[in-house]
Amino acid sequence: MTYAPLRLEDYDISPTHGFLPSEPPLRRLPDPYYAPWEDIMDRFNQYLLAHHIRRLVRKMPVLSTEKLSTQAEYRRAFSILSFMGHAHVWGRNGAVSEPASEFLPASIAVPWVAVAEFLQLNPVVCCAGVCHWNWQILDDTADDLMDIDNLGTIHTFSGSLDESWFYLVTTAIEAKCARGLSAILDATAAVERDDMSQVTRSLHQIAYALGEANIILERMYERCDPYVFYWKIREFLAGWENMEEAGLPYGVLYEGVDDTDTFSLDNWNSLFRRFRKYAGGSAAQTPLLQALDIALGIKHFPTGERGPQSSVAEARNKLRAQGVPEPPTVNSYLVQMRDYMPGGHRRFLEDLAATCRIREYVLLECSDSLLHMGTASDPRVLLRQAYNGCVDLIKTFRDKHIMIVSRYIIAPAKNGPMSPQRVAVPESSKLMPPVAYMQAMAKQTSRLQSGGRMGGDSLSADPTMYPQTNIAATLKSSEQPVSKCPMQNMLAANTRPKSVTVQVVSEAQDVGRLARKLEDGAVARGTGGTDAIQFLKQVRNETAQTRI
Q: How far is the C-alpha of 343 from the C-alpha of 338, rounded, in Å?
C-alpha cells in the first residue's frame, strides 16, 4: 500500500489546539428558536439544586435540529443536551430519596440523538461534551491563552469550582499536547523516508508534550476535592451501562426514538430491546491517549487477559521474517470508547493505526547490543533512548491516573459519607393528594391504551404528576409485587389499577446510587462502567512492557 501522509485538518483536528476546537466553544446558540434550551442552561445549577430539572425538561417542547447550521452550533447543542439529559436521569431531590429515571423525555432524547448522529458519537455525556466543547478563555491578552489558569468552564452540574477544575485539567492537557500530534505525523513520515534523525527529534517533541501533560495532571489535587468529586459530582457523569447497582439495570428508554412511543405492552421483550445502554464519561474517550498508544505501538488486550509475551529480540526477528504483523486482539473497551469520540477523531485513530510504524522502525534499527557497545553519540542509541523516554512518560502518566482514581473514588467509597444525613421530610409532603394522584393515573392509563406517548412533553409539568416508571424493576421481577410506584403494576398488567398503594422510600433504604459506601471486596466501577483499578493497572503494565 502506498504511504499517504495524514493531515490533521482532514480529521477536524487543530494543529494548535489538538482535539479541541481552534476557536472557543459557543456560549449560547444564536438562533432564538433554541431559547427553551438556553433558558434552562442560564439557571441550570439553580434549577438542579431546587429539583426543577425534571419538571422543566418534561415541559420543554421537542425542538428540531434543522436550524443548527455550523459545527460549533452542533457541538454547543450536544453539550447542553448532555447536561440536561444527565440531570434528568440522575437528578434527585436533595431531601427525598428518589430513583434514577429510566425514561428520557422526547424533548431531550429526539434532538440529542439527531445531534449525536451528525457529530457521529453516542448520545450520552462524554469527554468531548464536558471537556472539549465546554471551555472559555478568561483573558484574551494572556501570553498563553490555553494555560489552565486562563481557562474556565461554561457549564457544570454542581456549580462547584471542584467540578470546573476536574474538566479543565483534561482540557489543558489536550491543548498542551497538540504539538505532540504534529510530531507523531512528522515521525511517521520520517520513518517512510528512513530519516532517523528526524524520527528522534519528533520523539523528543512528543516527550516534551507528555512532560507537560504529567505536570498538569498532578495539579488535579490543587482545586478538586476528592470528597466533593465522589459524592457530589461523579454520579452525574455516569452513563447507563453496567449500572444495575445504581438503579439502571437495563439502561434508559429514549422517548420518540426507536419507536418508544408506539411499543406494545403485550411483549416485555419488545420493550426490553428499546432500552439503550451507554457508558458514561471516561478518560478512555479522549483520542489523545489512544493516538499516543498507536504512535508508540503500545498494545492493549482484553481486560483480565495477557497478550502474547515475547522478548524484544523475538519481536524483532518476527518483523524481519514476516514484515509488519497483523494487529493483535485489542482491548474491546478501548475500541468501544471510540464510539464516544467525534467521527473525525475516530477516523484519525483508524488511519494512524494503518500508517504509523514508529515502534517497528526502532525495533529494526536498534539491536540489543547497542545497550552494551553503542556510544552515547550513536544515532541508533539516541533513537532508542528517545522512544523509551516517551513510553516511560506515558507509563508515569498512567501511574498518576491510578493514584487519582484511588484517591478520588476508592478512598471516598470505602470511607463513606462524612456529612450529616439529609433532613427527613414529613411523610405528608412525600405523598400526592389522593384525588389528584388517581386523576393522573387515569390520564396515563388512557394514553397508554390509546397508543399515546408515555412521558416527555405529553405530560403535565407538575412533578407529582409524573411518578417514576421504574420499568426495569418490573422486567426483573417475575412475581410483580406491589411496587414503589403504581405505574409498574399498571404497565405489567396493561390495565387500569383497581387500587393504588404508595410506598414511601425511607432514607435508610438508600435507593441505588453510584456514589455510595462500598463494602469490603466490592468493585469500584468507573463512570464508564468498568472495574476502574483493574483496567487502569493492566493498561499501565502493558505500557511499561513496550520499552525496547
A: 9
